[in-house]
What we know:
This protein is of the alpha/beta class and 693 residues long. It has 26 helices and 18 strands. The protein starts with 13 loop residues before the first helix and ends in an 8-residue tail after the last strand.
Amino acid sequence: MVTTTQLPASAAPTALLEALxxxxxxxxxxxxxxxxxxxxxxxxxxxHMLVKGSGTALADIRAEDFVDLDRxxxxxxxxxxxxxSRDEREAAFKQAVLAARLYPERAQRPSxxxxxxxxxxxxxxxxxxxxxxxxxxxxxxGRSLVLDNLGDDVIWIDLVDPGFALAQALQxxxxxxxxxxxxxxxxxxxxxxxxxxxxxxxxxxxxxxxEWLSSELRAVHDQAxxxxxxxxxxxxxxxxxxxxxxxxxxxxxxxxxxxxLRGLLGRTGxxxxxxxxxxxxxxxxxxxxxxxCAIAMGGPLSPDQIVYCRSFxxxxxxxxxxxxxxxxxxxxxxxxEHTGTFQxxxxxVLVQGLGLFASGSTWADADTARLVYIDAIKVMAGxxxxxxxxxxxxxxxxxxxxxxxxxxxxxxxxxxxxxGRVAGKVALVTGAAQxxxxxxxxxLVAQGAHVVxxxxxxxxxxxxxxxxxxxxxxxxxxxxxxxVTAAExxxxxxxxxxxxxxxxxxxxxxAGVLRAASVKTQAEGDFDLSTAVNYKGYxxxxxxxxxxxxxxxxxxxxxxxxxxxxxxKSGLEGSNKNFAYAxxxxxxxxxxxSFALELVSDGVKVNSICPGNFFDGPLWSDPNMGxxxxxxxxxxVPGATTxxxxxxxxxxxxxxxxxxxxxxxxxxxxxxVDQVYETGQALPVTGGQVMLx
Length: 693
């Protein structure tokens, strides 16, 4: 049930508001209809109109997110002369629409298409950027195909600036439509290189118009595609992806290009970009097909593409087997040339035969660019099948690039990105499905990082990551399987990190096991397991992430990354009847010091944190395999008869009188990340139980 507690008593009737919210959610959740929070909806009642607020998304819009406007003020605006200059006109239009707000104290900004919504005769209005419509609106033959087949049921509006100019064009077309047909409202309005508008007296009628248009246009498309089949085969010829690369080539290229783009696309002194990779079928049909570069570089198709992907992608040729050093140099030169030509770095990079890389300050931004560009690929493919692509002209493109409305949307998005001590960083945490590792991951996400939770318990890692993303935002966490004792498992996990985020800034090597026993009785297998996970696993993780970190530093010399091993106080002093664990942790500190010496030239700081006893975690408190239970069974604590006796014994050994907590360790992690002059250290967090000399 929609609540209207935040709306004034004179606002829309509850039934209308509920229908509007439901209509918005229905269409906003369909990526074939709405992407990147685009599209808008409205409802009219009395002399009011509630329209979607700018910066909100249809998929999750709330009742209070709609802006209440005075329709009389909107109508009066249409009669005004706002001047001939685009800049003057848009500034005056924005102020006039803001002045039409009935409740300006809410500081809401209505959709730029508010006047268009006012003009549509139906009570409910829906404006969408549907893929199946834009295959016509962005087609050179689109106007004739639509009007010849749908006749007076549809109005077509030629390309015109959004906002005031579009509203004026619609007003003229509606008047002509009424004079021609005697009707006050068409079943749909299609706007060139933009999308569709549909209105109806009820939610059901509005939905019926959209379903009718979809059915009709899909039939027209199929017929037109058949008629242009010969042209399509000659121009595309890419359905079998003859230029696609094999799996080994893909992995090698992605593992270089992703990290390189993270650094090349950002600004000095700022966090590296998030870069996400896509090699789905629609992408490969473009990048692996003949003529793909010419198609992609023809120009943008719609305002959305300009806003979220920038006007032109960067096209890069793939050269399988090319030395990484040459590929990095070629990428740097290509990005520099593109930036010089278009005054901004690319958001989308297309690599011939490989796929699409999309960048952003967050994964959500990068994924939005990816989705919007894939939609553009589908639109281009559909338009080509019907006679050719209608790209936006240069003057219109330039207008959208500098449009204040879009600058406002970007400011809203930036404000929502969030802050924190590791904001903008990508972290990989091993052993993160539960316990200490999970709590580390949770805190990193809360402090603004994107976090990969990896664990041999793959299901647990995925479940924990899904919960974090549900709480903190899509893409803020992913879960991956990893067996730190197996080189290929680690390499595959790192590759998946690169595919999702482009690289990483922080490795938390946390995975560990402990098998306590006397040296006289411990099974060889338990000793081998401790060594493999705690010592070899640390080595393998560093070995596989080091090349990624090196590339990022090479292209951004001001950039520094971090490797932090979660060691133990047992890495600083021996542990009675726990030699396998202590030995592996002693060895880990030796690895840390050695890695630090080698990787400092790659901009990598390597440190260990040596926590005291984490008594509340499963390592200690698990009733069957926890250390308290193990130590009780092995008689490590003289006189202890219960688990509580063992726990009290260990707490009494800590000068601070308690065990270590995640919060204690997080302070150490953030300290080490913040430092620019600290590497090769083993930092105790033991409550004074172990003191360095």
